[in-house]
Amino acid sequence: MTAQGAGPAATLPGTPWFAERLVAVHAAVVPDGPALLHDDGIVTWAGLDARVSTVAEMVAGAGVGPGERVALLADAVLDMLPAILGTLRAGAVACPMPAGLTDRERSAAVDAVRPVLALRVVDLAGRRPVGLVPVVDAPDPEAPAVVILTSGTTGRPKGVVLSHRALAASADAWRALLPPATGWVLPLGVAHVAGLGIAWRAIAARVPVTVVAPGDPAALLAALGEAVGASPAPSHVSLVPSQLRRVLDASGDAAPPSSLLAVPLGGGAIPASLVRRALRAGWPVMPTYGLSEMGSGVTALLLDEARADPEAAGTVGRPLPGLTVSIEEAGSDGVGEIVVSGPSRCSGYVGEPPVGRREPLHTGDLGRLDAQGRLVIVDRRTDRIVRGGENIAPTEVEQVLEAHPDVAEACVVGRPDEVWGAVPVAAVVLREGHADPGSEALDEFARASLAGFKVPVEIAVLDALPRTPGGKLRREVIRALLAGEQAGELARPGGEAIGWRVTGDGPLPVLLLHGTLSTAAQLDRLAAGIAETCGATVHAIDRRGSGTSRIARPRPIDVGTHVDDMVAYLAARGIPRAVVVGVSFGGVIGLELAARHPSTITAVAAFEPPFGALAEGEWRTWFTHVAGSTAAAHRTGGAAAAAETFLRLVAGDSAWERLPERAREFLRREGDGVLADVAQPGMDPDGLRQITAPVTILTGTGSQPVYAPLADALVARIPGARHVALDGAVHTTPITHPAAVVAAIRSLLELPA
User: Which of 146, 210, 255, 449 is least surrounded by CB atoms within 10 angstroms?
Assistant: First the structure.
């Protein structure tokens, strides 16, 4: 069966247009008109054009030739969008890297696009073009324009090549289907196809884009009802299901502003119950199906149809104008592979032979067409779980779990099993304010609607599900967490994540926390020693701002936030109680964890924790000076300047000068972690009296003199605590010579040598 394009036009004009050139036209026609709206003000079309020209000069000045790829790194949409357009204006191919990637992910992403230049774009608001804007002939419409990374949910990322024609065709298809827009709200990054598509549609229509944080439903609600200057309130917003659910929860299912005309909904499985809930509340939601390979949307459910037909809510509608959808190799139930075609088709992938834009795209997704020709998504073939020969669609199980009154979101993945091949396991997020109903209750609830083989064998409760910046579930992260793998991430509320790595398989669980200007990986030798000599499984965590737990918005992190992260990790791994070993500032977190959640900790060993709140006299002044100077360095010079300033202050100029360049480069990358720690916000010295677990504070006789008096001050506050000095040890000993620390920990735990 094949579904043809729906909406006001079955075919679209084929005349291509170029977004980077339209920006210049808009700047000439309405220079003071709003192009981008954000918390700090307005970027006019003239201002956007200037930022685009600035990036074009940067790219051309770096010697990048026409058609060559440029990897773009920028944390803010206000920098990334001009970076993309500026790269195109210079005749190059823009390869935007999503914000918030870990070092490992960023390296894989850059490898996937194979750029000739990696360009970090920061604070374009403070720059202006010098007037040497490169003059580039109008590109071939079929030439590559933008490379978008696939989400990587099923493996290493691939670079999807989208031509100028594909981008324009996708925007034109959406504009033909949707009511005319007065403005778009953008709660997604433009390094992903959904956010990029919004920008292209807004540029084509010369309407402003209001940029809001993806995880802030209050800001989104405010933006939808806000008219700025002569501009009316925005009429369109594109959301992923988790965002819509949070917005409905935050608003109490209140009706949206009457100015809101369209809410395309996509980026993952869309529960019919969520669509019906939104429609009842008056939200003009339009379930969609899309792919990076098709420049954004492929199908959409028209609002009138969704309101008129109760069965429509379980579908994603019909193809956009100019596109077709067919089902190939359908079974007796009509389910087969979804195949799509149309002018927005990608040109292929980086490193692979190009394909023609008229060649059908085999998506790998499974679906069917209902009696009205609407597409019903059944599953992603790559996500399907096969248990003893029985097929399990994760989305089916997820929708059942999400129907439970206490469950907000669910993710189901397969876990390898020696008997069955694979078994389903689930992670759920509870509704705000709801108590955990318990695994048995959730199991019973699922069995009422599912065959026994489909019911998850384990259900973990998480604070948040891991998602890409584009809003898609990162099933591989859940899979790693629930399968007991050796490394992975744990999603946290607000869209951030903490990385973890596991060493050993002993019965004693140990939580290992690194210090400032360090990472969990630097403690690998210490982790291995503890695991081997103490019969432990060591869970080493990269705290926010460090290592694989980079944060998109570098800032000081409250101690309570670090503590909440640790509690969430222990809960996700099913660890009721653990020993905490903390190094430097990791020791501070370990002590605070033991004070605030005493039932989760069996013992604490903290090596030279810089508990600045207990410092006295000149040392208190010194802590304040280090914090202020490091924060100032970060403001003016970023992570690298903060790292160097911090190390020079705490270890002396000579310590920095003696470092090899490779070590300096590592430390510069960790400068955001310094900013996260150095102000030490949220410490509660009085709360230390609540600690019930045995505590030992370790110091080195060769370390700076500040640590010994701090250790004594901590011992004076913590019931039963003791101070042990390690002969000859210095502050870096846990990293450089961990054997002495391992021996001390084994002794503290009263384990035989």
Answer: 255
